[in-house]
Structures are given as structure tokens and as C-alpha cells.
From TrEMBL:
Keyword Cell membrane: yes
Topology of this chain in the membrane: Multi-pass membrane protein
Domain of life the protein comes from: Bacteria
Record-given protein name: ABC transporter permease
Family named by the database record: Belongs to the binding-protein-dependent transport system permease family. HisMQ subfamily.
Gene Ontology molecular function, alphabetical: transmembrane transporter activity
């Protein structure tokens, strides 16, 4: 084994752990906030729907890289400073929750309206109808796009490198630079190939799972 492999592998593994934590935090926050926001989009109140719709359209309409730059470089102007991990997690969660809200809204509205009417006739309040009747049915419809969103968020964690977060991509880039300076050889192909393999191994099973759910729910 070449002598450069072990230190590079250890360094990139640290970046991989950061990427895994960032993906986990972003996915959990996006799913929880997205379910709440998507449910609020189905409320009868136009005011509530209007406020939530504004949130969704703003964060869905912005590229993730712009959101990251805004949080990390613009907010300090008004004395709001966060470290790179928190900035990346917030940025990804804002984008992810807005997209998740649309997934939930679409799934809820795809449930036949007669289900809600029948539940109302049985005396269920709006929260009761959502909890016991609508959301359980909507959950099956939301699974394929939810898994797709998880894959997308996992892939987008690589953008956190633009604000200096030492994720797996940033760690690999720094390793390439160090090897170039120290020995004149970048070894970029095996290093970046390993990073590509990591994302492939993580994302491919999720993509296949999403397709399986789509076939099952047809």
C-alpha cells in the first residue's frame, strides 16, 4: 500500500463522518418541519396557508448554494454568526423542509375528499381527521418522493464545502492539494473515485427503494 493512502484515508474519513451527521440532521429537520408545513397548507385558513406558501416558495425557489452563502456570509452583517456545520444544516433544512412540505401537501390532497367528509360525519375534528384518517393514507403516497428527497439532500451536502465545512468533498480536495505540494502528484483519480463510490453506495439503494415503492403503489 502506498504510504500516502493511510493518512489520506484517515483525513477523508473524518470528512465522511461530518457529511453523515450533516445529512442526518438535515433529513430529520426537513422531514419533521416539512410534515408540519405541508399539513398546514391544507388548512381552511387562507392566512395560515398564505404564510406557509410564502415560506415554501421562497426556499424552494432559491438554489441551495445561495442559501448557504446568505446564512454564512450575509447574516454576520447583522451580528448573527454560526459555524459552518450549523450554517450548512440550516440551509439544507430550509430547502429540504420547503420541498417536503410540497410532497406532504400533494399526498394529502391526493386522498379522496370523501374520506375527510366521512370522518367529519363521524364527529372527527380537523386534527382528528388528519391524524387518524388522512395522514395514514397520505404517508404511503408520500414515501417514493420522500426517499427521493432524502437522496437529493444527501447529495447536496457536498455543497457545504463552498462555505468551508470539512465534509468528505472538502477533505478530499485538501488531501489532493497537500499531496501535490509535498510530492508533486495529486492522486486525484483514486481519492475522488473513492468519494464517488461512497455517494454511489449510499444513494443507489435509496433510489432503488424509491422505485420499488412506486411500483408497489401503482
Amino acid at each position: 500500500m502506498p504510504p500516502w493512502v493511510s493518512p489520506v484515508a484517515s483525513y477523508v474519513a473524518g470528512g465522511l463522518r461530518t457529511t453523515a451527521w450533516l445529512a442526518l440532521v438535515s433529513v430529520v429537520a426537513s422531514v419533521v418541519a416539512g410534515i408540519l408545513l405541508g399539513t398546514l397548507l391544507t388548512l381552511p385558513s387562507r392566512i395560515v396557508r398564505g404564510v406557509v406558501r410564502a415560506y415554501v416558495e421562497i426556499w424552494r425557489g432559491l438554489p441551495i448554494i445561495i442559501i448557504l452563502f446568505f446564512i454564512f456570509f450575509v447574516l454576520p452583517i447583522i451580528d448573527i454568526r454560526v459555524d459552518t456545520f450549523v450554517a450548512a444544516a440550516i440551509g439544507l433544512s430550509l430547502w429540504g423542509s420547503a420541498n417536503m412540505a410540497e410532497v406532504v401537501r400533494g399526498a394529502v390532497q391526493s386522498v379522496p375528499h370523501g374520506q375527510a367528509e366521512a370522518a367529519a360525519a363521524l364527529g372527527f375534528s380537523w386534527p382528528g381527521r388528519m391524524r387518524h384518517v388522512i395522514l395514514p393514507q397520505a404517508a404511503r403516497r408520500a414515501l417514493p418522493p420522500l426517499i427521493g428527497l432524502i437522496v437529493n439532500l444527501t447529495q447536496q451536502t457536498s455543497l457545504a464545502a463552498v462555505i468551508g465545512l470539512l465534509d468528505v468533498l472538502e477533505a478530499s480536495q485538501r488531501s489532493i492539494e497537500r499531496l501535490t505540494l509535498s510530492g508533486g502528484y495529486a492522486h486525484a483519480v483514486p481519492i475522488l473515485g473513492a468519494v464517488l463510490g461512497v455517494f454511489f453506495v449510499v444513494c443507489l439503494p435509496l433510489t432503488m427503494l424509491s422505485r420499488w415503492f412506486e411500483r408497489r403503489l401503482r
